[in-house]
Amino acid sequence: QVRLVESGGGLVQPGASLRLSCAASGLTFSIYDMGWFRQAPGKEREFVGAISRSGTTTYYEDSVKGRFTISRDNAKNTVYLQMNGLKFEDTAVYYCAAGGSNLRNEVFHWGRGTQVTVSS
Prior knowledge:
The protein is 0% helix and 51% strand. It is an all-beta fold.
């Protein structure tokens, strides 16, 4: 059974940093591109960014470029989302995803999400 378990969410002030983790099990982690999506209240789920199976390539939605960084550790079956300079509009449930090379449109497995709230 495939499991993607996110952790690291919380309540932070604007400008703060958080690092989300996603621990994967039940799949051959290294053959999947991995990434993150988010869903804010009343909005559709949106793509945040992704990392290739080898970790050499990353790409991000424009709204998070320069602030968010995705990395992975294939030995630990874990993908990370480092979020710096958090803004109110980053408040959302963040979901980990495993999929193909076009992860934005090719998700095979989802995590259950972790809440990130940016508030003063």
